[in-house]
Amino acid sequence: MIPVFRPCMGEAEIKAVGEVLKSGWIGLGPKTREFEEKFAAYMGCKYAVAMNSATAALHLAMTVMEVEGGEVITTPMTFVSTNHAILYTNAEPVFCDIEPDTLNMDAGKIEALVTEKTKAIAVVHYGGYAVDMDRVLEIAKRHNLRVVEDAAHACGGEHRLGKLGAIGDIGCYSFHAVKNLSTGDGGMVTTDDPAVYARLMKLRWVGISKDTWSREDKSTKEYSWYYNIEELGYKYHMNDITAAIGLVQLEKLDGMNRRRAEISKMYTDAFSSRKKIGLPVVKDYMTRPACHNYVIKTEDRDGLNACLKQKGISTGVHYIPNNNYDMYKKFRGATPVAGAVWKKLLTLPLFPDLKREETELITSSVLDFIK
Ligand SMILES: Cc1ncc(COP(=O)(O)O)c(C=O)c1O
Questions:
Q1: Of the candidates 157, 126, 368, 353, which has an alpha carbon nearest to the alpha carbon of residue 270?
Q2: Domain 11-370 has CATH 3.40.640.10
Q3: Cα–Cα distance between 223 and 48 in angstroms, integer?
Q4: What is the pTM of this model?
Q5: Calpha distance 46→194 (Å, rounded)
Q6: Which residues line ligand 1 at a C-beta cut-off of 6 Å?
């Protein structure tokens, strides 16, 4: 079977892990620090804090944006972690409908959902294609709301205003097995605010004021055992084995994203004359999509899915709108567009190592079925 996603790992990642294993420091330490510094520089942010997942990153982002007890305007078209993070923080998700073409939150529908309880807007750059951030930022400013970017799909992608994840108040990234930058599992939060950064550093390591690595004197190797606990934190930090993979993947990220864009273009060129297939849409503000996935829209989605499976091609559906799930049904916000369009969505295979023959088999199989 051709998988839908596949991590792109090589000898450099294997070597980097080997070096960390031999170094004697495999927990939260110098590689994690180096990854944070290089990631922040790449994103054009002042600070980055490495986590063990984007789910953890989103939870702490919601915590430090102080949404507790309030409402967060969010999208139903996402992996549930975005919305679970709102609930973890004792806030309520309010669902905003999506644009039928980009599948991103429809910025034109946000303002009608704002109440005096609204604390933040959580945007997801679906598939690595930017949300209309000019309009989101304008609404946030008018109502004094924080903007949390879930850039789990969007590592390395750009909006006219900057790198995805680095435009709002706080950005969250995923390094899960099949993401554009992968470490198996992992995540990052970026911010420009020194107070937010300091709090994140504590919260990600059970509330400890100074992590073990910072407590070692680097010249004498003497270790100071004293630390304070200032607030209830979580066991959410990254370790140096993960960070070593992340450092190699960060170097490769732009190249891997270019390959994703090339494959996406091959699909678009093959399908663009067929009216029966809706394709990913690039708006003028999406200066560089991260091309995390390639999602088509078609009436007989399930029929196409079954046909591709028979030909050895795996597909996916991203996503069932979150407010279709039992535990989310009670939350405010009607989303008729998401409720209709998700039934047409099918995710085709897309990863940097996908071979030309494989893309040809995929495009010809889709075209045969549509015919
Ligand atoms: C949009 C979105 N947000 C958050 C997450 C959670 O990421 P992680 O698996 O790193 O916790 C994912 C993962 O698939 C995602 O797609």
A1: 368
A2: yes
A3: 25
A4: 0.96
A5: 8
A6: 53-55, 78-79, 81-82, 124, 150, 152-153, 174, 176, 187
